[in-house]
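This part of the workshop introduces the protein records we will be handling. As an example, a complete record with its sequence and its C-alpha cells follows.
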Amino acid sequence: MSAGSIQPLMQELNGVYTDPTRVLQDASKLLHSEQGSELIPKILPVAERKGHVNEYHKRALCFTGCIPIVYQGGRYQIPIQLFLVPSYPSSPPICYVRALDTMVLKENHKHVGADGMIYMPYLHQWNNQCNLVDLVLNMIYIFGSDPPVFSKATTTYRAVTM
C-alpha cells in the first residue's frame, strides 16, 4: 500500500482532519511497515468519546486487518481496527480488537474491554510525537504476552492462528 492509494481516501475526507498532511504521512508509514502491512485503509463511521458524550463522525480513516504476534513460540494474527479521529494527531486513535466469528475475546483482559476497545499506556500517554507504527508495535508487545482473543473451537484457551 502506498501514499498514492491513501491519497484518494484523503481527498474523499477533505476537511475532516485538522492536520491532513500528518494523517497521510503516518498512514503511509504504517502501511509500509512490516507490522502494518496486513492493514487495509477504509473510510468508516466512528464515535469519539468527549467527556461523557459520544461525538459521532460520519467518516474517518480506519485501518482494518491483523497484526502479527508471537505467543509461547507460536505465530498468531490479532484482528484490529484503528480509527483516526478528526483531531488526530492531537488525539489518539480509537482502537479495537475485532474478534472473528471463530474467536472469543478474553474476559477481563487488562488492555481490552468487553466491547473490544483497546486501553493501553501508549494511548493514554498520547502526544503529537506518538505515531501509528509505534502504536502497533506496542500492541504487538502487549498482546504477545497476553493475547486478547482465543479460539472458540477449543475447550482450553489458546491463541488463534490465522
